[in-house]
Amino acid sequence: MPKRTPANTDHPSPDGGKPRQMRADGQRKMSSLLQAAMEVFAESGVDAPVREIAEKAGVGLGTVYRHFPQRSDLIVAVFQSQVDTCAEAAVAIAKKYEPGEALARWMQRFVDFIATKRGLAKALHSGDPAYSALPAYFDKHLRPVLEGLLDAAVTAGAVRPGIQAGELLRAVATLCQGPHGEGTAYAKRMVELIVDGLRYGAGTEISKR
């Protein structure tokens, strides 16, 4: 991608104040673009042609460059979008299911998130400073989500207390690497076992080590 001056994806307000939120049609186009990029990266890697992403999203090549002047801008946006979607899913799941079931279902949703991140692995582990803020973004948005689900499940007596959200996130991410040749199904089976383990001693006070 050629280097260009980054463009603001929001529209500036007439009075020069805070930018206006993108209009609904613009938001839909942006969502389509990020989804297409995520799918192309998953299939072809982060070095896939930008034209392929534009065609899959149904937008012009100029639209991609206007919003994401550099490839790293697009990769960062895809990662953050997937984190946001995973965090938002917790709210919907918590409203629909009892605390213990909500925790179990979101853990499976987190496995799906890790699977989509694989397409970005080459870039995220490249040492490029453009991605240096992403681990903090991940932690800031997903750790509180899991802490909330765990707290609700403990209060409901569905899982035992003393579980650290950060440790659980790392454990699941490690499981998602899995044995060679194993896919997401393997990780989901293992996560089911982890959640079953969390239920042991539910409703009792266990001291933190």
Can you give a write-up of this model?
With 209 residues, the chain is mostly helical. It folds into 2 domains: 21-69, Homeodomain-like (Arc Repressor Mutant, subunit A, Orthogonal Bundle), CATH 1.10.10.60; 76-199, Tetracycline Repressor, domain 2 (Orthogonal Bundle), CATH 1.10.357.10. The chain contains 9 helices and no strands. Helix 4 (71-96) runs parallel beside helix 7 (134-155). The longest helix is centred in the middle third of the chain and has 26 residues, at 71-96. The protein starts with 23 loop residues before the first helix and ends in a 10-residue tail after the last helix. Mean pLDDT is 84; it is low at 1-20. One of its GO terms (molecular function) is transcription cis-regulatory region binding.
Layout of strands and helices, then pairs:
Blueprint: H1 24-44, H2 50-57, H3 61-67, H4 71-96, H5 99-117, H6 121-124, H7 134-155, H8 165-175, H9 184-199
Task: Put the structure in a nutshell.
The chain is an all-alpha fold.
Instruction: Give the quaternary arrangement of the chains.
Output: single chain
Gross CATH architecture of the largest domain: Orthogonal Bundle
Helical fraction = 55-70%
Q: Please give the count of helices.
A: 9
Tell me the radius of gyration.
Answer: 20 Å
**CATH topology term of the largest domain:** Tetracycline Repressor, domain 2
Mean pLDDT: 84
Distance separating the two termini: 50 Å
CATH class category of the largest domain:
Mainly Alpha
Number of domains in the coordinates?
2
Reported for the largest beta sheet, the result is: none
Poorly predicted runs of 5 or more residues:
1-20
InterPro entries: Homeodomain-like_sf, HTH-type_TetR-like_transc_reg, HTH_TetR, Tet_transcr_reg_TetR-rel_C_sf, TetR_SbtR-like_C
Keywords: DNA-binding, Transcription, Transcription regulation
Region (Disordered): 1-29
Biased composition (Polar residues): 1-11
